[in-house]
Design goal:
With about 240 residues, this protein is an alpha/beta fold. Helices cover about 35% and strands about 20% of the residues. The strands form two sheets. It has an eight-stranded mixed beta sheet with strand order 1-2-5-6-7-8-9-10. It has a two-stranded parallel ribbon with strand order 3-4. Bound molecules: iron/sulfur cluster.
Length: about 240
C-alpha cells in the first residue's frame, strides 16, 4: 500500500489507520520541529495530488482483508504533509464513512481553514485536530515558517469559523518549543485566543523525535506544568 498505513498505535488515538493524501512534504508550513525534515514543496495550492480512486482502492483492500478482531479506533488523515491540501479530502472522508463505522480524524496545521471549501470538506470528519503554535506573526514565522503571505490572524479566524460550523470533536494541538512559545506570558496570550476558538480539548505536545532544526529544544517539565495550569482542566499534556 502506498497511501494507507498501519494501524499504528498512538497515545492519543489508540490504534489508528493512517491515510496519506499528499506526496512527501507537500505542506504550507516548514515547522522547525517537523520530524519529516524540511518541506520540499511549500504551497497552499489545493489539488488532487493523488487520484481519489487510488486511495479509495487501498482503503477498500484494507477493510476487505482486515483480520477479525484487529483493533482499530480511528481512520486518520495525516501523513507526510498537509492532508487538507488534497482537493478530494471531503470525498475521501465520505468514502471511509461508507466503508466503516470507525470514526474519522483529520490532523491539520490549520492554515487551509482560511478557505470555506476546506472547512466544508473536513466538517464530515468525527474529530479534527488542528494545530496552533503561535498567536503573533513573529512567533508564527519563527516556529512554523509558513508560506509567505500567510497571516496568523487569518489562521485564527479560520479556526473560529470552523468551530462554529463543526459539530464533531475539536482537539487543538499546541507544540511548545523551548525559548520560542513557552514563556508564561506567551502561554497566557495563547490561552486568550484559544478560549475564543473554544476547542473541546487543548493538547500540549513537545518535540518527541529528532526535529528538522537541530536548535529546537523541548520545554522543561516546569513549563509543561505551568501550561497545564494556564490552559486549565480541558488541557492534556501529551509528551
Ligand atoms: S505542518 Fe506538519 S508536516 Fe508540515 S512542516 Fe509542520 S509538522 Fe511538518
Amino acid at each position: 500500500m502506498k497511501y494507507v498505513y498501519g494501524p499504528v498505535r498512538s497515545r492519543r488515538l489508540g490504534f489508528s489507520l493512517g491515510v496519506s493524501t499528499v506526496p512527501y512534504k507537500v505542506c504550507s508550513f516548514d515547522c522547525v520541529y517537523c520530524q519529516l525534515r524540511e518541506t520540499t514543496r511549500k504551497t497552499m495550492q489545493r489539488k488532487s495530488y493523488i487520484r481519489v480512486s487510488d486511495i479509495v482502492g487501498e482503503l477498500r483492500t484494507f477493510f476487505a482483508r482486515q483480520p477479525k478482531g484487529m483493533p482499530l479506533d480511528y481512520v486518520t488523515f495525516s501523513g507526510a504533509g498537509e492532508p487538507t491540501l488534497h482537493s478530494g479530502i471531503g470525498r475521501l472522508i465520505l468514502a471511509v464513512h461508507q466503508m466503516t463505522d470507525v470514526p474519522v480524524v483529520v490532523i491539520t496545521n490549520s492554515s487551509t481553514l482560511v478557505r470555506p471549501d476546506v472547512r466544508r470538506d473536513i466538517s464530515a470528519a468525527d474529530v479534527v485536530i488542528p494545530s496552533l503554535d503561535a498567536v503573533t506573526q513573529d512567533v508564527f514565522e519563527k516556529i512554523d515558517r509558513p508560506l509567505r503571505g500567510l497571516g496568523v490572524k487569518d489562521v485564527v479566524g479560520g479556526l473560529k469559523r470552523f468551530r462554529k460550523m463543526f459539530s464533531g470533536r475539536l482537539w487543538l494541538e499546541i507544540m511548545l518549543v523551548r525559548g520560542v512559545n513557552d514563556s508564561p506570558a506567551y502561554l497566557k496570550l495563547m490561552e486568550k485566543t484559544v478560549r475564543q476558538i473554544a476547542p473541546d480539548r487543548v493538547q500540549i505536545v513537545a518535540p518527541a523525535r529528532p526535529p528538522s532544526q537541530s536548535w529546537v529544544k523541548v520545554p522543561t517539565k516546569t513549563t509543561l506544568k505551568t501550561a497545564k495550569k494556564i490552559f486549565g482542566r480541558d488541557c492534556d499534556i501529551i509528551c
